[in-house]
From TrEMBL, chain A:
Sample GO molecular function, one term: uracil phosphoribosyltransferase activity
Name of this protein: Bifunctional pyr operon transcriptional regulator/uracil phosphoribosyltransferase PyrR
Presence of keyword RNA-binding: no
Gene3D superfamilies for the chain: 3.40.50.2020
Alphabetical list of NCBIfam families matching this protein: PRK05205.1-5 (NF003549)
SUPFAM superfamilies xref list: PRTase-like
Pfam family, one: Pribosyltran
Alphabetically ordered keywords of this record: Glycosyltransferase, Transferase
Residues in Phosphoribosyltransferase domain copies: 8-153
UniProt xrefs under InterPro entries: PRTase-like (IPR029057), PRTase_dom (IPR000836), PyrR_bifunctional (IPR050137)
Bilayer-spanning residue ranges: none
EC number in record: 2.4.2.9
TrEMBL record, chain B:
Similarity remark: Belongs to the aspartate/ornithine carbamoyltransferase superfamily. ATCase family.
Keyword Transferase: yes
Protein name per UniProt: Aspartate carbamoyltransferase
Source species: Adhaeribacter swui
Gene Ontology molecular-function annotations: amino acid binding; aspartate carbamoyltransferase activity
UniProt catalytic activity: carbamoyl phosphate + L-aspartate = N-carbamoyl-L-aspartate + phosphate + H(+)
Lineage of source species: Bacteria, Pseudomonadati, Bacteroidota, Cytophagia, Cytophagales
């Protein structure tokens, strides 16, 4: 497995700060805006953004978790069924400005499923998409992000891994992994 | 990513504790779906399911149908009354004719024990047993155990008494298998005429006195007296059955603890369960019905991945 660091811990901090500022520019105090992190990995980005935003604006930012499992288009095209995660939306999204948050935008299929899943909770006034990494020229659907941390050129044989600080790692890093050499 | 270890849900006996846990975890997510403003997901939109009921059913059929609709499946309903079965067509021919119409899954209820097992050996479609005679009713047992888990936090270590007509009950057998696989202790209680002779061979306690059973258990699953299955008199009268085995609020209040009351439905009010007990806070009968849809959605979803 070949791992190449594309966003370091320090750069990721700067990136989240910039994305938060861009969001504030458009959503001000978030009184009419909510954040939905896509399960499973978009939730970590959403939580970090929420912390950053709340620190800057000094007000609570409504943040939820949206599971897209039952809305995916690759069910029965996999070896085993997809395991769902919890959806947790403790607020009304009707007429709200929704910011969907994910770690990586690749084919756009997850975002399509997320739009489908989100509609079950109401009709938002507007929907935007924020991603940490945009894998350019890889889209299967006409979907683009409103806010991008960093765009990368990658091959289909590669994958992007967003690694958050945990018991195993002391830093937040984003790696580009060449899968051909994975065992 | 997990998958069920089986292609069909024929009975609880055929599945593993890991399968049951997977069904429960999936059902947890479907319960959330059922509480959304729009209670529908597109997961099974390219699947056609036939509900083949050779026996009367209200809640099981309704619950399966609702689960299928919530998953966006196409549904074909078939009931034996007024069908070609009445003209002498065999079970296999009937089902093969339905399958020729490009049906992917079969939900089947039949009066004969083992009918879905027989079918599973002859057809390619995935089969869900919705009750076969007095043998098994797996989704009922799953929703019962799921409801216990929801109310008490876990099934393991709990004492569950199944009270009433054990002899004619497919719910009882599936419940015994499910609860034991999840680590619960099981007792059966009823008149000796309504207890299968070798029931203790399944590793369950046997009790003839309903008060003793209630004093022992954390959960009482009260079964319906199935008058339609009884070919002979198993007890002198319904009144006498109620006197000795009927559960009412007075009896529950006389216990030194608060137990959970369950019933698979439909209730013979005033026979095995009085109205004040069935409608009390201790009863989770309507929770069982709600959980039935989530459990059946989970079963169909997990089996459909193998279609």
């Amino acid at each position: 497995m070949q791992k190449r660091l594309i966003v370091s811990n320090q750069l990721l901090e700067i990136m989240l700060e910039r994305l938060a500022q861009q969001l504030i520019e458009n959503h001000h105090d978030f009184s009419n805006s909510v954040i939905l992190g896509l399960q499973p990995r978009g939730v970590f980005v959403a939580e970090r953004l929420q912390q950053t935003l709340q620190r800057i604006i000094g007000k609570p930012v409504r943040t939820g978790r949206l599971d897209i499992t039952f809305h995916r288009d690759d069910f029965r095209r996999r070896e085993s069924p997809l395991t769902a995660n919890a959806t947790q939306i403790d607020f009304i999204i009707e007429n709200q400005q929704v910011i969907l948050v994910d770690d990586v935008l690749y084919t756009g299929r997850s975002v399509r499923a997320a739009l489908d899943a989100m509609i079950a909770y109401g009709r938002p006034q507007k929907v935007e998409l924020l991603v940490l990494i945009d894998r350019r020229y890889s889209r299967d659907l006409p979907i683009e992000a409103t806010y991008v941390g960093q765009s990368v050129n990658s091959l289909s044989s590669q994958r992007v891994l967003v690694e958050w600080r945990s018991a195993e790692t002391t830093e937040d890093n984003i790696w580009l992994i060449t899968k051909t050499e994975e065992k | 990513m997990q998958a069920l270890s089986v292609r069909h849900l024929l009975g609880i006996k055929n599945i593993t504790p890991a399968d049951i846990q997977l069904i429960f975890e999936t059902a947890d997510n479907f319960k959330e779906v059922l509480n959304r403003p729009i209670k529908k997901v597109p997961s099974l939109r390219d699947i056609t399911i036939a509900n083949v009921f050779f026996e009367n059913s209200t809640r099981t059929r309704l619950s399966f149908e609702l689960a299928q609709k919530r998953l966006s499946a196409d549904i074909v309903n078939f009931s034996a009354s007024g069908s070609s079965v009445k003209k002498g067509e065999t079970l296999l021919d009937t089902v093969n004719n339905i399958l020729a119409m490009k049906v992917d899954m079969i939900v089947m209820r039949h009066a004969s024990a083992g009918a879905p097992h027989f079918l599973s050996k002859h057809i390619k479609a995935n089969i869900v047993n919705a009750g076969d005679g007095t043998h098994e009713h797996p989704t009922q047992a799953l929703l019962d155990a799921f409801s216990i888990r929801e109310r008490l936090g876990d099934v393991a270590g709990k004492k569950v008494a199944i009270i009433g007509d054990i002899l004619h009950s497919r719910v009882a057998l599936s419940n015994i298998f499910a609860l034991q696989k999840l680590g619960a202790e099981v007792m059966v209680c009823g008149p000796v005429t309504l207890l299968p002779r070798y029931i203790s061979a399944l590793g369950v306690k046997v009790e003839l006195n309903v008060r003793k059973a209630l004093e022992w258990c954390d959960v009482a699953n009260v079964l319906r007296i199935q008058l339609e299955r009884q070919q002979m008199k198993y007890f002198p009268s319904l009144r006498e059955y109620t006197l000795y085995y009927g559960i009412n609020k007075k009896l529950l209040d006389s216990l030194d603890k608060e137990i959970v009351i369950m019933h698979p439905g439909p209730i013979n009010r005033g026979v095995e369960l009085s109205s004040d007990a069935a409608d009390s806070k201790q009863a989770i009968i309507l929770n069982q019905v709600e959980n039935g849809v989530a459990i059946r959605m989970a079963v169909l979803y997990l089996l459909a991945s193998q279609v």
